[in-house]
Amino acid sequence: MSLVIDADFHGGNILVEAVGPDFAELAIRPDSNGAWFQWFYFRVRGARGRSLRLRILNASASSYPEGWAGYRACVSADGEAWTRADTAYAGGVLEIRHRPPGDELWVAYFTPYDERRHQTLRSRATAAGARADVLGRSVDGRPIDRLTLGTGRRQVWLLGRQHSGETMASWWMEGALGRLLDRADPVARALLSAATVHLVPLVNVDGVARGNLRGNAAGLDLNRQWHEPDPARAPEVAAILAAMDAVGVDLSLDVHGDETLPHVFLDGADVDPLATPSQIEGVARFRSALAAASPAFQTKVGYPPTYAGDEAPGMCTRAVARRFGAVGVTLEMPFKDSVEAPDAVAGWSAGASRRLGGETLAAVAAVLQLDA
Ligand code: ZN
Fold first, then answer.
1. Does residue 372 lie within any of the structural domains?
2. pTM of the model
3. Cα(255) to centroid(ligand 1), Å
């Protein structure tokens, strides 16, 4: 009996080219209306007792082929508990080898974060006193959810999943929100009395549902649209910017995953040639506070510290920093294991991302100088 493989669910992505009793030849489907691909998420059935070889044939043509070196795929028997599988990248093919304990195996680029979990997060937050509203609608008509906590004068914006395949941003968001909702936590209490914190956990909600790596339903990279968002093709960004215009921005923190680098790092708007001394100092405070709070965060490896490229003005961190005179930070987590916080079983994981989300609040507090 051949395996049965499908990706017909929220966030799923795989094309099946050939399948046998213990192997499959697969391809990652490019983003809807876009050329990017790297995110995969599928289900294998009929796997009991079989040593599987799952081969992704178009890996070398993906958006970040260098991301496969040293990478291990995420697998789960029940869709809840995830670990890493033996994975090899050779001859342009990514081969995942695993012997599942049961009949079913879930396989993904990183631990998925599904729609139900997002709804639960919203409900949990509102039950604990957060305000929830809808900033606008995506290209496909999905609501862009915002959660707001605190009553302070300073305006802090936390954004996740502009790039839909970077699910670690959702796990990070869960950790940050969990700490903000903890009334016994003095950092959270100080933050929420000094600031109003706006969380937009799923910016690219259509890309998330469609199983895209980067693009929204119109095929745009939303993190290149922030200087002049087209309300028809990037309504997600236009809606968030309008909400930002209504209250202002003191700190914008945009959370991502990086396919290639095995590190947690940040990319700040302090590299903008127009950055003011207080914007530069804000990023520096964020960096040193996060280094003190998180053993996973490091400052040696990251993107080149330049304001380079034609697309730079459209990046959220740069555009929002300029528009509002805000401190702008992009936080990146790995798809691979982290060199600084290695985990031989899980690699960089949902749990590690969640923990970092909580730890990052100390850096947010440092930007606002709540420790002063
Ligand atoms: Zn990203």
1. no
2. 0.97
3. 8
